[in-house]
Every structure is written in C-alpha cells, then in structure tokens.
Design a protein that fits this description.
3 helices, 9 strands, 36% strand, globular
C-alpha cells in the first residue's frame, strides 16, 4: 500500500537520503499556477537512550549519533501544520499517513509529540489512520505507529 496525494495535490519528501535527523513531508496544492504550500508533517529525531546517573540519582540522556545506521534507538516524533483554509478535508490525516509510511519504510520508530494538539489527537485516534497502521497508545500518553496493516 502506498499513500497517494489526491488529484490536484502533490507530496514532497525531503531529504531523500535514508539517514537524516529530520524528515519533512510537505503537501502542495498544484491546482494553482504556482503550487501553494498546504501543510507539512515534520518527523524529528528524538534521543530516547537514557542512563541512570548514580551520583545524582537522575536519569540523563546519553549522546547518540543521529546519523548512525543503527535505528534501534531512533524514534521520530511527528510535528505538523496545516493551513486553516485546508482543514476539515482529510488532508491532515493524509499528511500524517504519508509521514508514517515514509518513516516506517525507512525502518524508523514513529510516535506522536509529547503534547499533541487537539487536531493531532483526533488524527492519531481516527479510525481511518488505524485502518492503515497499527497504532498503540503508550503509558506515557504518546501514540506509536508500529507497522502498516497487512504487512
């Protein structure tokens, strides 16, 4: 299954390279003479490796190279924006679906941000997103896209 833009719209994914700390999935309205930016979902790398510091008693982040080939500890959070005049048409859901598909195809772990907006919460809870992907809500309140359905 591949998520495709509706007629008159076009996706652009940057960067094309497999190893990147930030991936942008952008949707353009191509029905105009000059394509108009509709919105985007940013997949931003988050360092989830933590270690317990015995001296302070606190959990601290350890340093990890985001450009490494090792994706076991790479988790990418979704951050999105959709122009107000394009809301309510299912385009936000489409953007999230494409971003999740791109991330999972690159072998990355995809999750919601720490404090998703009301709109993002609605997308993560939507039946249409869950028809395409296996989504779980963690104990920390974040949503995690585990895999595409049917794979």
């Amino acid at each position: 299954m591949s998520i495709r833009a509706p007629q008159g719209f076009k996706f652009e994914v940057t960067p094309k390279k497999r190893r990147a700390s930030t991936i942008y999935v952008v949707l353009f309205d191509t029905r105009r003479p000059v394509p108009k930016h509709v919105g985007e979902v940013e997949l931003k790398w988050v360092n989830d490796r933590v270690a317990f510091n015995e001296n302070t008693g606190w959990r601290e982040n350890t340093f990890y190279n985001a450009q490494s080939n090792d994706v076991r500890y790479k988790r990418f959070e979704t951050h999105s924006h959709l122009r107000e005049e394009y809301r309510g048409r299912g385009l936000g859901l489409l953007l999230y679906s494409k971003a999740i598909e791109v991330g999972l195809n690159r072998g990355l772990k995809i999750s919601s941000s720490r404090a998703p907006s009301e709109y993002a919460e609605r997308v993560w809870n939507s039946r249409r997103l869950r028809n395409n992907f296996v989504i779980r809500k963690g104990s920390n309140g974040r949503y995690h896209a585990l895999r595409q359905r049917g794979t």
